[in-house]
Amino acid sequence: MGLMGKLLVAIGLAAIVAVVFIAGGQADAPATQRAPAPSRGASDKAVGALPWGVYSIYWGPMRFVVHLDQDLAPLASKPDYVMFYRDLGRPFPKQGIEIIRERGAVPIISMELWQWGWGAVKCLPRINKGEFDGYFRKWAADAARDGRRVLLRFGFEFNGDWFSWGNDPKGFVAAWQRVRRIFDQQGAGNVEWIWAPNVISVPDTPANNMHIYYPGDELVDWVGVDGYNWGDHYDRWHHWQSCKDIFERVLDAFAARYPDKPIMIAEFGSVEGTAGQKGQWVRAAYAWLSRRLRVKAVIWFNYDKRAEQEHDWRITSSPESLAAFNETFASP
Hints:
The protein is an alpha/beta fold. It has one domain (about 40-325): TIM Barrel (Alpha-Beta Barrel), CATH 3.20.20. About 35% of the residues lie in helices and about 15% in strands. An eight-stranded parallel barrel has the order 1-2-3-4-5-6-7-8, surrounded by five helices. α2 packs parallel to α3 (about 95-100) and α5 crosses α6. The longest helix is centred in the first third of the chain and has 21 residues, at about 5-25.
């Protein structure tokens, strides 16, 4: 092969390596090279910023205004997203969504596939029999009529055993596909669907692997994951973990399996630990997540669950935690 041929081969190989590198979503590339958010998941953040949001509990629009403003007041900037939960049977939450938009954020609705007060009743079989078709049709039509961005986290943490819709891969996939078709038929293209397993499957068996719950690329807009640092003293299964410890394995798998999907940390948070330890955790989490260029949004679970035998997950659980969050995720 002549010199010109060798040069052409070298150029070709360099191009291939570059393509492979970009497609792999290297975690350690500088944050200033963060690609723009996807067209259906666009953010107003400058290139290099990490869009973030908070969960705020929803108890009807009047109480939501009060709670949300209390949650946001200590923060140094406005969030990109605000998330709340809704169970089956409740209508498209137009008032709650408007409250979020008035505060400059995009709404995320986490739809629980049960009806409050009847949590042990399994609704997946009923969804798949068509018993909720009319409900979903009306919800989707109202969303389409609204016409603006709404993110829908449908039946999250399906690979866990704590929700009545969990541990049923075939039933979950069938329900997702059925309901997504209804939304498409109603013209609700403004609704972005988030597929969000828990970071660890419970039980952690091949038959309950999170990826067998995936309903198909054409039916998913975002891939997300929920995970927490429970600390050393919650139970015998949990111990103190950094954000990297919690999420790295799953984010690497997402990058390989779903290369065209934006990634969301759909719920995360940390226990306090010793004095100042949560603040350190927040700073390290921001530094690490900022290098994960495929991550397009992170949602902090901003709620005190000590009354439910969990932790105080709030950003304001300590002055050190609040200061760290305001100097990283919420930095203006």
